[in-house]
Predict the structure.
Amino acid sequence: MNINKTFINSLTNTQGRAKELPDKDTFYRDSGLTGFGLKVSKSGVISFIYEGRIKNSRSRRITLGRHPSLPLDSAKDKALETQRLMKAGIDPVQHRIQQKQELDQLNAQHAVQQFTLRELMEDYFKYKPETTERWYRPVLENLFSGLLGRPVRAITAEDIAEIYYQKAIRENHPAQAKKGNRYLKAICNHGLRKEINGIGILDRNPVILAMSQLPAEESKPLPPKERFVNQERLFDFIRAIITECHETARDLLLFLLFTGVRDSEAKKLKWDKVNFHDKTCTVIAKRNKDHTLPMGPLIYAMLLARSTDQSPTGYVFSNRGNYSHIGDLRKQFRKITQKTGIEFSPHDLRRSYATYLEEDLNVSDSQISRLLGHSQQGVTKKHYIKSQATNYKDEASRLYTWITSLGDWSRDSGKGISRLDLENLYEGTGAVTPELSEIYAKFEESWSNDGAAYIHTHLHAFLYRNKILSIDEYDKHYLDDLFDLEFLEPYDDEFSQMTETQAHPTPRRGNE
């Protein structure tokens, strides 16, 4: 039987399958090329085959390919090649597998040679939390922008050392250079573990080689930073925050100083995480863990004052456009530095907070650690001691009391309005200074606009808005006595039911 196009067309329909389905697999063998033939399966699939004996081995039937995907001429060429391999004692199937493996290896080698640093970085981020990408990406893209598009295998230790010298020595930013190398080292370590068809992306870490070529002191990590706001300059620093910064920046910086949270944690604080009843707030700390901390008197007053004008975004410290949280505050930092000469960063305020607790208030290391939201080390602390930062409300209040004892930050002199000043003003005795008259006028104005009930329940917010920051001098019972508010009982739900007359009584002044 001569297997040609006419014969094949007589067997097939327009879809290239058998016109009639056989009861079992049927074979048609070519009379011209020994071993070459057709196979028609029970399902109607037509395939080209070759049958023969491997030299010094067994007979094999090899499927060459399907019709019509494989043309007849190509099928006969493959049959001749298969015949040649069998006569040479080579198994065609194993030969085909070996060829595919060799081709895959060549493709893999090419892919590895072309695999860029950016591709490796993106692959690394797939296996890491979003916070890692948020920290690493800007540093890597800024420091190694010239290397990201290059094949990672083509990046040499000399390339990395040159970038390090540029940033650390010439530009005098050793901390940024060391951080960049640390991040890049992690990316390259990932390349040591990643393979394409069994071929590793990297066989050595160029960052390690680069650091080994640097002087010994350059390969050492930088010592921990020690900068904080010295206690002797703390009054000047807080006073500058109040006088030089816009309202949101002022509140954010005071929040950082009085809570010790990280800058990013404070900026992303939302109102649904503020609990005025328990006097706590919850920030999203590292690894997306909740960190709940107590409010001291100042933070409670500040948040209460800010709560009257909440941003639609839900952020406590929103930006001016009210579409996100507040952003970069370096301009505000420079204003404070220009007035005080104090250089600082947001993390310096966190360090200051911890220092004040330890040096001035004798708070234990473990308590400070929990207030800062640090992970607990050791089996006992990690698995058995479960005290929370919210248990240390007294420490938060003591810190506030200690700082306010340095002076009233609402005035350059450091002398604010005391309880005695208000009593003298109320009784009509003592000197009525412009400052006392001003604060009394503000109190009367707020009383008229908001009502006594509002002032009674939001006293701390009233004092904060009017920059009477020594808030521990004042309490509701004291104001009850001073301004005849005895009729106000501690019932929150009934305030809305008060009459207009009850809500807006006229305060006594002096002996009037």
